[in-house]
Amino acid sequence: MLTVGLVGARGHTGKELVAILSRRSDMRLVFASSRAMAGDPVSRLAPEARDGLIFEAMGPQDVAARGADAVILALPNGEAAPYVAAIEAVAPRTIIVDLSADYRFDPGWTYGLPELYGRDALRAATRIANPGCYATAGQLCVHPVRDLLSGPAHLFGVSGYSGAGTTPSRKNDVEALKDNLMPYSLTGHLHEREMSRHLDHEVRFSPHVAAFFRGITMTAQLSFREPVTAPALQARYHDAYEGEPLIRLIDTIPEIRDGQDMPGAVIGGWSIGEGGRHATLVCALDNLLKGAAVQAVQNLALAAGLEELGGIAGAV
C-alpha cells in the first residue's frame, strides 16, 4: 500500500485527485492539506474520500514529517520549492509529483507524459514534473510528425475556466466570460515554452478561455517540408498511439464534449491542404483529468511500480 499525501487539495484538480486515489486499492490518501478548508472532512469536496479524512493546514515541515511514501503537490506556480526542500531534508526517497510549472524545465526532474516520452524514465523516479494541460494536448498533436515539419507548429487552444483555478480573476469570472471568448498571454505563454522545450521543436501557441467549466480543444496547424498524404498522416498517429488506452483517434473533428469527463485524449479532424504541405488536426481532453489528475496518478503509479491505470479506468 503506497501512502500518499496531497498538498493544495481544495482546488479543482485536488478534487479529481482525491476521487482517483480513492478508487485505487494499492494507494491510500493519508493526508490532504488545505488552509482554506482546514477542519472540514475531505468528503465535503470529494464524496469518494474515505471516512475520517480531514483537511489539515500543513506547512512544508508538517508535510515532510508525516513520512508519506509519495506527495502530490497541486499548488500554484512558484510555491512548490519549500515543500520539495523540506521533504528532501527529511525523506529524500519520497516520490514527489509536482503539478505546477516549477520543475518542468529542470533536467533533474522527470517530465511525465508516458505516451510520448516513455515509461522507463518514470520507473523508480522520485521527482516528477507533471505537464501542463495545454502542453499535454499540444504535444500529443505535434509529437508524431515533428520530424516532418518545415517550421513552427501553430497551436490554437481553448480551455474551460476551471483552468484558471479557484482564485478569482477575469479568466474564471462567469459574467466576464458570458457570450465571450477571452484571448490572453498572446506571446511567451509558459506552455508555449514548455512544448517547444520537450518537443525539441518550435511551437507558437495562442491560448483562450471560454464560458464552459472544463475541457480543452487544441487545433494544430502544421506545415511539412515534403507533401504528406492523408493516409500517411493518419498512419503516423496510429503508429504512435497504438496500444495506448487513453488516446483515441477519430475521423471527425473532436469537440469540447468529446474530451470532457474522459480520462484520456481524443485526436482527429485530419485535414490536408496545399498539395499535402499543410495539415490541421484537433485534440480534445479534460484539463482536470488527462491534463492534470489522471496524468499525475499515471506518473505516480509508474514511479512506484504499480498498475498504471488503476483508479483511472474506473473513470472511463
Could you describe the 3D structure shown?
There is one protein chain. By secondary structure, the protein is α/β, with parallel strands linked by helices. The protein has 2 domains: 2-131 and 291-315, NAD(P)-binding Rossmann-like Domain (Rossmann fold), CATH 3.40.50; 133-287, 2-Layer Sandwich (Dihydrodipicolinate Reductase, domain 2). It has helices spanning 12-22, 60-65, 81-90, 114-117, 133-142, 174-177, 190-199, 230-241, 256-259, 289-304, and strands spanning 2-7, 27-33, 55-56, 70-73, 95-98, 110-111, 127-129, 153-159, 182-183, 203-209, 216-223, 247-249, 265-273, 278-285. The longest helix has 16 residues, at 289-304. It is globular.
Write the layout of secondary structure elements.
Blueprint: E1 2-7, H1 12-22, E2 27-33, E3 55-56, H2 60-65, E4 70-73, H3 81-90, E5 95-98, E6 110-111, H4 114-117, E7 127-129, H5 133-142, E8 153-159, H6 174-177, E9 182-183, H7 190-199, E10 203-209, E11 216-223, H8 230-241, E12 247-249, H9 256-259, E13 265-273, E14 278-285, H10 289-304
Parallel strand pairs: 1-2, 1-4, 2-3, 4-5, 5-7, 6-7, 8-10, 12-13
Antiparallel strand pairs: 8-11, 9-10, 11-14, 13-14
Helix pairs in contact: 1-10, 5-7
| Mean of all residue-level pLDDT scores | 96
Total E-strand runs: 14
DSSP summary: helix tally: 10
Tell me, briefly, the overall form.
Answer: globular
**In the CATH scheme, what's the topology name of the largest domain?**
Rossmann fold
Unreliable runs = none
Adjacency order of strands in the biggest sheet: 3-2-1-4-5-7-6
From the coordinates shown, what is the CATH architecture of the largest domain?
3-Layer(aba) Sandwich
Give the percentage of residues in beta strands. 15-25%
CATH top level class name of the largest domain: Alpha Beta
Which percent range fits the helix content?
A: 25-40%
- The CATH homologous superfamily name of the largest domain equals NAD(P)-binding Rossmann-like Domain
Distance between the first and last residues' Cα:
24 Å
Domain count? 2
Largest pleated sheet? 7 strands, parallel
